[in-house]
Amino acid sequence: MPHNSFRPDLMGSAKIDAIEPQTCGELAMVTLTYTAGHFGIDDSGSIKVSFRSASDQTRFQLENPKAIGYVSVRTSNGAGVNTWYESNRNIRPWHHTLYIQCKRFLAEGDKIIVCFGDRSQGGPGYRTQTFVEKTQEFRVHVDAFATYDYVVLPEERQPKIELIAGAPVAYFAILPTLRTVGDQFSLGVKVEDRWGNPTDRNPAIFNLRASRPVQGLPQTVSMSGSGGVVRLDGLSVDAPGELTITVEDGTGTPVAVSNTLVSLVETEFRHFWSDLHGQSEETIGTNSARDYFAFARDKALVDIAGHQGNDFQVTDSFWRELNEITASVEQPGNFLALPGYEWSGNTSVGGDHNVWYRREGRPIYRSHRALIMEDSRPDGDALDLSQLFERLKDEDALVVAHVGGRYADVGYAHDAKLEPSVEVHSAWGTFEWIFEEALEAGYRIGIVGGSDDHKGRPGASYPGASKFGSYGGLTCHLLPELTRDALFRAFRQRRHYATTGCRPFIDLRLGGLDGAAREWSGGPVPTHEALIGDIIQCAGADAILSLRVAAQCGIERIDIRDGLQTIEVIKPVVEARRRCNRLRVQCEGAEYKGRGRMVNWDVQVRFDGPRVLSATPVNFWNPDRRVRSDESNVSWSGVTTGGADAVDIRVDDASSGKLMFSSNVTKFELDLADLNDEDHVVSCGGLKKTVRIMRLPDESLPSSIELTRNLPLDADVERRVFARIVFEDGHMAWTSPIYIRRSVGA
Fold first, then answer.
1. What is d(CA 19, CA 25) in angstroms, rounded to the nearest whole number?
2. What does the pLDDT average to over 16-36?
3. From edge to edge, which strands make up the β-sheet containing 160-164?
4. What is the rounded distance in angstroms from the CA atom of residue 132 to the CA atom of residue 162?
5. Alpha-carbon distance values, 307 to 129, 355, 473 (Å)
6. Which residue has the higher pLDDT, 424 or 6?
7. Which residue of 112, 152, 547, 596 is surrounded by the most CB atoms within 10 Å?
8. pLDDT surpasses 50 at 378
9. Are 276 and 450 in contact (CB under 8 A)?
C-alpha cells in the first residue's frame, strides 16, 4: 500500500490497556497511549488512529461525554490538541479514523492518552464491533513533521484487542438437502450469540430427536470445547423420505429444528452448498484468509468456498499466498476451496464481477492498481469488462456479475461461456433487477447467491450493525460428486439455485417432453425431461412443470415465472388466511442501484378497532432494532437494501376496523374488511420501494409442497421458466431458469 515509510522505528509506540478479550457487541472502555519517538511531534503535527471499514463498532464522537462512543484525548505535557473523527477519509481499508493534531510540539517520551468510550463523566462506553476478531487493530499513523504524510507504526508496536463471542442465544441444526438412501451425511449443531458468532460459552448438552430412523445418530451432543459448532459425521438413512432433526435442551424443550434432508433411492446428483464470495483482512475484510476458509468449512458448514478480494488490493504476494491456501485446505469429496478474485472495475467500465479458476497458478487480470505499488504484469491488466472477457477466453474460469459498492452493468459486455450466472443476493442486499436486466439483454443466465462477507464469517454472514442490510446468500449446486471438475461443469450448465441464506430442498423440472434435446457443449442430447438450468429444444406443444419444495419453515408464496412475467402466484392455505388474525406489515426495496441503496424506515402502525396482542419482527438482522407495541400501536425502525423486513402483528379480530400506516416514507389507511387474498401494496418510488400488507394464517404455514402444472409451448417462443419462493421467516430462493423452445416443424 502507498504510504510514507521513513524510519517507522523512530516514530514512537502505542499500547492499549485492554489485556483481557472484549465481548463482541458489548459496551467497553479502552485507553490507548501513544508515546512519541525520537523525532517527537512538531507543532501542528498529528497522529491518527484508524479502524477497518468492516468494523461496526459505535461511531466515536467528541462532543457529548454522557453519550455513547465518547472519546477523550489529553497529553502528558499539557499540550492542547484538535480532534475530529471521520469515516471514508483515510486510505482503504482503514476508513474510520480519529485525528489528533498537536497545538504545540511533543518531545520524545511525551504521551497522547486516548480513552475510547470514556465513562468518567457518566457515559456508557462504546459498543465494540459485533463480530469476532483475533486482533482488532487500533492502527496508529504518525505525522511527526507536520507534513500530512503519515508513517504507520511497525506492526509489533500497533495496539490490538481480541474480540470474542458472547453468551448463547440462538441454536441451529444443519443437514444436507439431497442425498441417496445409504449415503453417509453429517449433521451440524450450532450455537450463536446475539450477533451471529458461534459460541461455546455456557456449553450445554442437547438431546437429538429425528423425525425418522437415522443410523449413527447419538442421543445427545455436548457443545463443550466445540467453539460453538459440532459436526456429527457418518449418519445415514435406509429408506427414502424427508428427514428433520430436532435439538432439545435438558428439559426436553425444542431449541432448533433442522432444515429438511430429502433422501431418494437414486438420483443423478446431490446437493452441495456454497458461499463463493467474501474477503479477508488482506483486502477489506477481517481475520486472515486461512481463517476465512476454516470458518466456511468448520463453522458455517458449507461445502464450497471462494475468496473474492478486490483486485486493486490483491498484491502479487497475496495472490500467490491465496493460491497456496486454496490448494492446501481443499479436501475433494468433503470441501472445495476455489482460487479467485473480484474484478472491481467501476460501473462505467462494467462493474464488479467475480472470477474463479478451476486450477491454482493462473494470472490475476486487474481492473486497476489504485492500492498496489507492484509493477508486475501491467500489460495483463483488464481495464474494462470487454478486456477481462478477452483475457479469460482461453482460461478455465467462471465469471459472475455482482452488486456491491460498484454494481455490475450486465449490458456492457457478456460472454456466455465464461459468465453463466448473475448474483441476486448478498449481504449488500437483494438485487433481482440485475437478473431482470440480463434477461432483457437476451442472456440465458442462471442465478446464484453469496455473502460478500467482510466480517470473517463466509457462509454464515450476519450484517451486524453496519452498512450491510441483509444476511449473506448461499448457492445450492446440483453435482454428481464434490469435485472441482463436477462443480465447473454443472456451474456452466446453470445447475444451481440461490437463497438469501436458508437451505431448502428445491426441485424444478419440466417433464413429458416430446422430441426434446438438451443443449450441450458436445452437441444436442436427447431427453424427456428438463432440469434446473437446462436449455431445451422440443417438438411437443406443452410440458408438465413439477416443483417440490421442502423448507426450514413455512412457505409464504411461490411465484412461477416465465422471464419477466409471472405465470402464477401460489399461496398455500388460502382459506386459513381469510379467517386469520395475523397481519404482516412489510417494507421492501431500495433507493437506487448504487452505494446509497439503503432505505431507512421509521414506522408506526395504529389500529382503530382491533386490539394488538403481539408484534414479532421478521428479517430484523440487527438485534438493536426492536419492535415497540401497546394495545393500539406498533412501531419500529428498520432498513431494507432491495429485500424486505416485516412485523407480524396479531390482533384479536382482523375482520374489521382500520389500520393506519405512518412512516418517514409514506402514510395511508386501510380498511381491514377490504384486505382479502390479494396483498395491499403501496408503491413508494425508488427501486421497488414498497409497503406490503398481507394476511397470514394464525398457525404456521406448511413447510413442504409439491405441485404440477401444464405449461403450453408456443412455436419458436423461448420460455424462461423458474420459481421464486418466499418463506415465512422472510428468506427467499430463486431457481435458475429452464430455457425451453418448441421448434417450428420439429
1. 18
2. 95
3. 22-23, 160-164, 133-137
4. 8
5. 23, 10, 15
6. 424
7. 112
8. yes
9. yes
Which CATH code, of 2.30.29.30, 2.70.180.10, 3.40.430.10, 2.60.40.10, is assigned to 505-572+708-746?
A: 2.60.40.10
**Chain position carrying cell 434435446:** 517
> Under CATH, what is the fold of the domain 275-501?
TIM Barrel (3.20.20)
Residue with cell 396483498: 679
Domain 170-267 falls in which CATH fold?
A: Immunoglobulin-like (2.60.40)
Residues 321, 325, 328, 333, CA torsion sign: negative
As a whole number of angstroms, the distance between CA 418 and CA 690 comes to 35
Higher pLDDT residue, 267 or 745? Answer: 267
Residues in the chain: 746
* HSE (side-chain half, CA atoms, 13 Å) at 514: 10
Q: What is the DSSP letter of 10?
A: G
Nearest to 354 by CA among 463, 442, 473: 473
Inter-axis angle of helices 289-298 and 316-329, nearest 10:
30
Closest CA to 353 of 299, 293, 277: 277
| Cell, residue 594 | 448504487
Find out whether 199 and 235 touch, Cβ atoms under 8 Å: no
* Burial of 557 (C-beta count, 10 Å sphere; 0-12/13-18/19+): middle
Q: Phi first, then psi: what are they for 447, rounded to 5°?
A: -130, 130
Cell representation of residue 452: 460478500
Q: What digits encode the pLDDT tens for the residues 308-357?
A: 999 999 999 999 999 999 999 999 999 999 999 999 999 999 999 999 99
Residue 298 backbone dihedrals phi, psi, to 5 degrees: -100, -25
Q: What is the CA 199 to chain-centroid distance, rounded?
A: 20
Kindly tell me the burial class for residue 233, based on how many C-beta atoms sit within 10 Å of its own C-beta (0-12, 13-18, 19 or more). Answer: exposed
Q: What is the pLDDT of residue 1?
A: 41
Strand order in the sheet with 178-180: 178-180, 261-264, 241-243
Q: What DSSP string runs through 197-239?
A: -B--SS--EEEEEESS--BT--SEEE-TTSTTEEEEEEEB-SS
In this structure, which CATH number among 2.60.120, 1.10.4100, 2.60.40, 1.10.20 belongs to the domain 8-164? Answer: 2.60.40
Going by pLDDT thresholds of 50, 70 and 90, the confidence category of residue 2 is very low
Q: How many CA atoms lie within 13 A of 170 on its CB side?
A: 12
Outline where 441-493 has alpha helix (H): 484-492
pLDDT at 579: 83
CA 8 centroid distance within chain: 38
List the chain domain ranges.
Answer: 8-164, 170-267, 275-501, 505-572+708-746, 589-696
> What count of Cα atoms within 13 Å lies in the side-chain half-sphere of residue 612?
22
pLDDT higher than threshold 90 for residue 693:
yes
The answer to whether the 275-501 and 505-572+708-746 domains have the same CATH topology is no
Whether 241 and 222 have beta carbons less than 8 Å apart is answered as no
Locus of grid cell 416465465? 562
Task: Answer for the pair 315, 253: CB distance below 8 angstroms, yes or no.
Answer: no
